[in-house]
Amino acid sequence: MGREVLPPGRPTSAEDDLVADRFRLERSLGNGGMGEVFVATDTVLDRQVALKRLSPQLADDDAARARFLREARALARINSPNVVGVFDAGGDRDPYLVMELIGGTTLRNELRKDRRIEPERAARIAAGVAAGLAAAHAQGVVHRDVKPSNIFLTASGVPKVGDFGIARIERGDVTLTMTGQAFGSPAYIAPEQATGGTVDARADLYSLGCVLYEMLAGRRPFEGTDAMALTYQHVHTSPVRLDALDAQVSPQLASLVDALLQKDPADRPRSADDVRQVLESIPATAPTTAELADPEHTTVLPHRAASLKGRRRPPWWLFAAAAAVVILAALALANALGGGDAPARAGGSPSTHASSAPPSTAPPTSSVSTPPATPEEAGAALISLARSMEAAGAIDAPTADEIEHTVADVLGHGDGPVNGDKNGQGNGHGHGTDALNELKAHIAEKVDGGLISASDAAQLDAAIDALARTLPAGDGEGD
After folding, report:
1. Catalytically annotated residue among 88, 145, 274, 409
2. pTM (2 decimals)?
3. Is 145 an annotated catalytic residue?
């Protein structure tokens, strides 16, 4: 494919410098996979292209020729501005593939130059790659070797996925591997691919997570030169979360990368298009203290329906997109009520880890200048935060369900009134606080069991405390 620097390569001989009486070979860009790629001139349309030819040592291999042409047909079906385009193919005995020549650079070259890419641009590049992968997956093509050197950046910065040389075509009756290779690149390989398991489109999502991690962190999720050691880490080790490495990365973007890098394919996002939508919807950088204090950066969430049972859950990406607003609102509320630089726990001290300590029963002090949110608003923020964490794989569905049901009970939207009147209005503080105490205790147990990270638990605790502060004082501790 195209490269930023087109090396002089080896010269072509006079007898083979014209392919199909149309494409004049100019110079070689190098060998790889099944063939060699050349810069060529299309003499009919008078434009430069990239032309890939089957390696001479494979020219007499019927199976290799068939795989090569399958690659051409598969790629020709993919119509996306984020995939290197295929213009032509042919040659029964000497197969060739004519492709778009990218005149920009590769992501690998960008990372060599800058090492780290600022979050907004990294998210844009990853969104483009996800769009290209979604188009390939829609045609049943799994790339299986997504890495920076296979991501091309045009002169205008548009990312394009190229080099499907070890792609896998999924069809209803058969699965075809382009080159018969099982492995991609060790630094970006999905666990199931490394262990010879079933590989589908979610393997590409894992590799994309590795690429996005590298762009944001300035290093790969796992480092080393030994291929076996790298693949072992992909299978058995979890990388450090991005938000623990760099405060500039937003919690939502860090959670998405964490979800992409889950070992079990079932725990990753459902599709490349879901990933694209999230990347285009969430903030890439963490909000500053000034932004958190700015009322314009908080949004009141709509009132949730009183009946929560039997609902159809919206697509997970909607929760993740809403998290951009929800987390800012929850953090701003907790910051205003706690009077500190970080979300304060009910007792008034900053929270850096999960705890089963109960939320405070004290009302807001007179020093608080920003009016507290209503219980409905704080409850909606907590539920949305929980659902976005569930979508990102930070908490499991039962935990998210427990949070939602607890909020419903505390607000009087459950099966009966909670320490309020018989119509379920005006919940008393006592029973609501008890329910929230119990919820925090359950979250702490999951932290102890390794099911929820301490940082995620701290976010949930802050949102629970924010809800507790909005509850009315009530008439005591209940009946």
Report:
1. 145
2. 0.58
3. yes
